[in-house]
Amino acid sequence: MLPQLAYILNTTVDARVGYSHMPFTDYEEKYRKDEYYWGIVPNRLCYEIMKLRPPVKPYRVLDIGCGEGKDAVFLAKNGYAVTAFDIADAGIEKAKELARRNHVEIDFFKANVNEYMPDTAFDIVFSSGVLHYISLDKRKPFFDRLKECTSTGGLNVLNVFVAKPFIGIAPDSEEAERLVEPWYSGELANYYHDWLFHKNEETIFDCNSGGIPHKHCMDILIAEKM
Ligand SMILES: C[S@@+](CC[C@H](N)C(=O)[O-])C[C@H]1O[C@@H](n2cnc3c(N)ncnc32)[C@H](O)[C@@H]1O
């Protein structure tokens, strides 16, 4: 009965028996539909990467929480050597399919950002809409490792949702997000205080995910290892 129970409770068998505190992500369900939940238009940060590090050689990119792969595939099509992971199997499957359709090779794999530690070098680390899943105790070691694994002159191009008292929790936020301690303004930049900043900004934007209009606040950082 455990698999059925876990499915009904929107969690995993591991979580139910105490192996992991990470609940099953809602994206697993969202990504099972045929259409691409996030579309296939790349994030504008991909163009910033291209401006700062034009692909004159196959720069090694790590995409953390790649979802259905739109950004990973865009970067690979433009000549970057991309490695990408996400916790959602359905996302990885669709990302692989998108890569096949675009005739690019990408090293996709499944991993939990709360457990994964990179062990090879990258020139560019990219992540959009994912870092808010990292629990407070894991943040410093994770960013320390990302910084170590980035080549000198390499970039970390990251964004994270941050909490503001005047912006409520998104109506469609999932359990995994609510269980994690919120991020605050400037916290992400602080992990990179010793790098060169190309961008360090905060933006509030409207969102209609889940069909209910709401707002998000996001910190965006582009930092270079000197
Ligand atoms: C807002 S989506 C962003 C997806 C992609 N970066 C994009 O912009 O299209 C958040 C992604 O984080 C993934 N995710 C959630 N929890 C995760 C975890 N613990 N480890 C890795 N990925 C996770 C979800 O499966 C989802 O694909």
Number of strands: 7
> Which percent bin holds the helix content?
25-40%
CA-to-CA gap between the ends? 54 Å
Q: Work out the radius of gyration.
A: 17 Å
- Per CATH, the class reads Alpha Beta
What is the H-and-E element order?
A: HHHHEHEHEEHEHHEE
What is the structural class? alpha/beta
Please state roughly what percent of the residues sit in beta strands, choosing from under 5%, 5-15%, 15-25%, 25-35%, 35-45% or over 45%: 15-25%
Average of pLDDT: 91
- State the major sheet: 7 strands, mixed
- The low-confidence runs, each spanning 5 or more residues with pLDDT under 50, are 6-12
Number of helices: 9
Q: Can you describe this structure?
A:
By secondary structure, the protein is of the alpha/beta class. The chain has one domain: 3-Layer(aba) Sandwich (Rossmann fold). It contains nine helices and seven strands; from the N terminus they run ααααβαβαββαβααββ. The longest helix is centred in the middle third of the chain and has 14 residues, at 136-149. It starts with a helix and ends with a strand. Residues 6-12 have low confidence and may be disordered. S-adenosylmethionine binds at residues 22, 25, 27, 38, 43, 65-67, 70, 86-88, 91, 112-114, 128-130, 133, 176.
